[in-house]
Amino acid sequence: MKLYKIAVIGQGYVGLPLSLEFANHYPVLGFDINEQRVKELNNGLDITREADIENLNQNLKKYDDSKGEIGYKATNLLTDISQYNVFIVTVPTPIDKYNAPDLNPLISASKMLGGIIKKGDIIIYESTVFPGCTEEECVPILEKYSGLTFNQDFFVGYSPERINPGDKVNTLTSVKKVTSGSTKETAEEVDDLYKKIITAGTHKAPSIKVAEASKAIENAQRDVNISFVNELALIFDRIGIDTNDVLDAAGTKYNFLKYKPGLVGGHCISVDPYYLAHKAEQLGYHPDVILSGRRVNDSIAKFIASKVVKLLISKGGIIKNSKALILGVTFKENCPDVRNTKVVDIYKELMDYGINVDIYDPWASKEEVKHEYGVEILNRLEENKKYDSIIIAVAHKEFIKMDLNDLKNENTVIFDTKACLDRNLVDARL
Hints:
It is a single chain. This protein folds into two domains: 6-214, NAD(P)-binding Rossmann-like Domain (Rossmann fold, 3-Layer(aba) Sandwich); 299-429, Rossmann fold (3-Layer(aba) Sandwich), CATH 3.40.50. It has a six-stranded parallel sheet with strand order 3-2-1-4-5-6, with helices on both faces. α8 (208-239) crosses α11 and α12 packs across α13 (343-352). The protein is 39% helix and 14% strand. It has helices at 15-22, 35-42, 53-62, 78-81, 104-114, 133-146, 184-195, 208-239, 243-250, 272-282, 288-298, 300-314, 343-352, 366-373, 397-401, and strands at 6-9, 27-31, 71-75, 86-89, 122-125, 155-158, 177-179, 202-204, 323-327, 356-360, 387-392, 408-416, 428-429. β11, α15 and β12 form a beta-alpha-beta unit. The protein has 15 helices and 13 strands. By secondary structure, the protein is an alpha/beta fold.
């Protein structure tokens, strides 16, 4: 029986939960280039709040590579993982400023692994990519840097991640996992490996391209559906009716899909459609529906900012040098993830109007927001400071319970992007 020793490349929102689940069955090393992250994990700390801390600490205690014991340890040393035989790549796959796929993290990880893989090793990619990327982009790099032959000396699998940050119900093990492999035998082996940890079961795709495409369309579908209701929100604002009232009425029909309008950011929904569009355009097809949905969703931050300004004017307020407070900067509620957040777009739009803008978010890392977006956020709300406009951008539990009267003056505009507050407390909502 083959003894699996698994190295998971990348210890973020995807890689860490995956590492800990596999560590219940195999020796696992979580590799990350961030030395501080590695130190924190080996001390039982997780700033993403995704890990089961008790499970993390139990697996740290169990790990003993010299004895081949199951368990977990984090490392940033290539020498530590060089004798492992299964490598799972969970690095980020973002987009650049032109909305084109940025494969640099994936390419770097493939070059790194090409330098250490051995005959018989399996490399499984979980990072979101366009169909064909694994075999067309990653495999040639692995061959070049290893000197080994694909599907003869080493093998490749693809199993798209389905992690939903902050979701404690639809967790890694409770969501069915798509698997695939570069040969029939590899596909079976990869599928059996994931069956060890996924209680919801697996779905073995007929090819790596099919598995890659399945991930891309999962989030493209959500993006298009949300863009539809966001466009409705733009229309209904002009008509003068509440979008949520319309959705409640339409939702009484059995087959109506009740999506909600809102900002679309994060690591998947606002990124993956561009990967699919990239591949389509490579093949000479312009994906009108996918890209039109992206345009609508990317326009919502500007709509919110302009709506707040119009409401201020209607109340007789002066725009220039007025004070605005944005509550929330993460891309979703009750989660510290700020990747690709669209709240920053609202901030920039309001600043362009000459408004002084504060952002407060008890879930977000001040240092990370500064590093990623060049924006300073408050450590805490200042006592006795009043704002001319307040925007609830993220439905954190703290904001739903907050008494906004302490932050208001007599003409303050309150805009609720999440429709999470009593409608009688706000001037408008999305």
